[in-house]
Amino acid sequence: MQQPSSGIIHGQPTDEIVLIDIVSSLSSPYFLRRVPSKAPLTAPLVIPEPQSGDPFDEALQDRHTKRRQWIQSSLARLQTEFKPHLPLRLSEQLQSTKINDPVLQPVNDTRDGEPDLLAFQENLGAAWVSYHDTDVQVDLVPTSLQAISLVDIYGSIHYNSLSDWMTLKVTIDKDYEYMIPPKSSFLLGPFTSTLPVFQAAFGKSSNTQRFDFMLLDPPWNNRSAKRAKHKDSYKTSTFNVYDLFKLNVADFLCDGGLVGIWLTNSTKWRTFLLEKLFPAWKVEMVAEWMWVKITVHGDPIFDLEHPVRKPYETLILARPIAATGPPGPALDNNNNNRPNLQDKIIFATPDIHSRKPCLKDIIKPYLPNSDPQCCEIFARNLTEGWFSWGNEVMRGNWRRFWT
């Protein structure tokens, strides 16, 4: 079996700046080719500035001022060191295609015939909670030769025990095929109602190994998301951000483990994360990674100095606070060969709405175990060897995303 692609176009996982192809970074069968998702931008977008000309979020502007030189110097390095890779040729099928700004204009990022996993769960309602057994874990291999109802998959942990990809046929309104990565497991369902399933499987009372890395991409509420008419907009969301307090992240992490959480540029949610949620989780920030969104020529997708919107998103990395000792950045005492965790810039052209670069290979050198146990919460696709959880967790694994 061929080795999966890391999606890294240039640079090493531990470098300060890395250039990534998001689609190639996703777990994908070695015997299939992923169908292109969205055309990468060939020129920066022109976004109108607010009529007042004043920053909408002054604290964001202050943070941006402190980051500006770092971002600009990294962009200069991108243009020089990575010049042989520019313009990016992510797919020949997309070279002459244009895309719209996913915030300024409504976008339908679904494929023809794609099943609506959210609509299914909305129809299911709360009845599932009253009778479901939280301890159920199912090996998919015995069922791989026959169709399984999504009703049976919903709210239970399912896993592929094989060291190779498998095709799973799932019945919703009709039969659909999904590609399940090797040694992966998943939980399909909304965060709040299926949290007891996760706690039963991986909590202190379970016999499972704790996670080396936990990654979260919560649907932070914001004005842009409300304006955009995505099929998975907040009208269909069952997520309450304050339910994150119920997670108790430190209980699920091994010694030296990390938690990463994608964050919008909103000062409101940054303050919530650092001053309320992290103390409740008993973790502290140790590094900040930025995904700077670029065109195929390596330019920011819009003006870096726009007073309202910034062409980047942030991943905050944290570790459990030591039981004793003063607060501060956690040290890598568990593994002398592990590189020190530092701030990083990830350059990548944006893909479909809400899809982030896969961090599987980039985060691995910083984890305490060479064969790390990892999980992604609010996931929209499955990753080889990882546990994934979300109300659209299988979406990116629909068979028709590949040729």
From TrEMBL:
Domain of life: Eukaryota
Membrane spanning residue stretches: none
Matches recorded under SUPFAM superfamilies: S-adenosyl-L-methionine-dependent methyltransferases
GO molecular function: methyltransferase activity; nucleic acid binding
Coiled-coil residues: none
Biological processes per GO annotation: methylation
GO CC term (a single one): nucleus
Family label: Belongs to the MT-A70-like family.
Protein name: MT-A70-domain-containing protein
